[in-house]
Design goal:
single chain; mainly beta; elongated; six-stranded antiparallel barrel; 8% helix; 3 helices; six-stranded mixed sheet
Length: 173
């Protein structure tokens, strides 16, 4: 019988931090902390703001543009420099469904906590961390016997990842 893990709700991931006001029309600079700024900061995107008292719970992106290597963001309801300064220092988060990713692409948060088992079903442990090393990604597995096992995250050794099922299969040498 296969162990089932309840579905994971969307989680919030940090995608940026608001910097200083830019100009007099209410735009702000953003320190980008995402691999997909075009998606996260597209017009209509709703982001969660935190880190300062008095911030709105969410902000809606009105527009974004690049100026040199800096992202400039306009936010619905923020029309002048004074209002833009109230956002300074806010941490911006986006909701991410960890089960939705391209094939062979996984969020670290989706992998941490998954059960690890061999192809014959023998339990190995649970993923405790994803290490991004220069040569390749490595799964740190907290073994059932208390030891830690480092598993290269390559298809030959990790042939199956089932986020919805809550497990990965490893073929240990």
């Amino acid at each position: 019988m296969r162990d089932r893990v309840p579905p994971r709700p969307p989680v919030r991931v940090v995608v940026g931090r608001i910097g200083r006001a830019q100009g007099i029309r209410g735009e702000v600079t953003v320190e980008v902390r995402t691999d997909a700024p075009e998606e996260r900061f597209s017009p209509g995107a709703v982001l969660f703001a935190s880190g300062r008292a008095g911030l709105p719970a969410t902000i809606t992106v009105e527009g974004s543009r690049w100026q040199n290597a800096r992202l400039i963001l306009s936010v619905e309801g923020i029309g002048d420099r004074t209002a833009a300064e109230t956002l300074r220092g806010a941490i911006l988060e986006a909701e991410v469904d960890l089960t939705q990713a391209d094939e062979d692409e996984f969020h670290d948060l989706a992998l941490v906590g998954l059960a690890v088992r061999e192809s014959d079903g023998t339990p190995v442990g649970q993923i405790s961390e994803v290490l991004h090393l220069p040569g390749q990604d490595v799964l740190a597995v907290a073994r059932t016997d208390g030891a830690e096992l480092l598993v290269p995250f390559v298809r030959q050794i990790v042939p199956e990842v089932d986020i919805a099922g809550g497990f990965v299969v490893v073929e240990l040498p």
